[in-house]
Amino acid sequence: MDHWVVVPEQPGFVGDRTVVDTATLPPTVERAHFVFTRQPTDGLIGAGPLVLVDRETAEALEDNVFGEVSLHPADLDTDPTSGLLHVPDFVWCQVHGQAGMLDIGLTEDGRLVMSGQALLVFHSFGGGIENATISEWLG
């Protein structure tokens, strides 16, 4: 099964209320806080091991039963200089899988890796992944 490294669109930055356990490989996000600096265009966004998805993508992930992810509320803010009037509606997509073993996983250094089947779900639902950088995973 082919797998791909996916670097999501990053319309902001990881907030200071994020809690990451860096003693684990890959690093484990224990609490998610993201600050938007602009309106996202994709349904998959994030930075490092912190992955967020829009509501439609979250529903598609639940319907496709990707057991290697769990969905949780995220602490979301907008940067005061962004001009955004509303916080975009995203949820935290906590990735539990190991890269290359299942459909969605993280490498030891926290990069997101997906199978072709998972990529199809992300392309087809929500805001898509048009602004993500995707390259073959050689793991």
Describe the structure.
With 139 residues, the protein is mainly beta. 13% of the residues lie in helices and 38% in strands. The chain has two helices and 13 strands; from the N terminus they run βββββββαβββββαβ. The protein has helices spanning 55-63, 116-124; strands at residues 3-7, 12-14, 19-21, 28-31, 33-36, 44-47, 50-54, 69-72, 75-78, 90-95, 104-106, 112-115, 133-136. The strands form four sheets. Strands 11-12-1-13 form a four-stranded antiparallel β-sheet. A four-stranded antiparallel β-sheet has the order 6-7-10-8. The longest helix has 9 residues, at 55-63. 39% of the residues are buried.
Uncertain regions spanning at least 5 consecutive residues: none
Please state the structural category: mainly beta
What about the largest sheet?
Answer: 4 strands, antiparallel
Strand segment tally = 13
Q: Which range does the strand content fall in? A: 35-45%
- In the sheet with the most strands, the strands line up as 11-12-1-13
Helicity, as a percent range? 10-25%
Name the average pLDDT: 92
Shape: globular
Output the radius of gyration: 14 Å
List the helices and strands and how they pair.
Layout: E1 3-7, E2 12-14, E3 19-21, E4 28-31, E5 33-36, E6 44-47, E7 50-54, H1 55-63, E8 69-72, E9 75-78, E10 90-95, E11 104-106, E12 112-115, H2 116-124, E13 133-136
Parallel strand pairs: 5-9
Antiparallel strand pairs: 1-12, 1-13, 2-5, 3-4, 6-7, 7-10, 8-10, 11-12
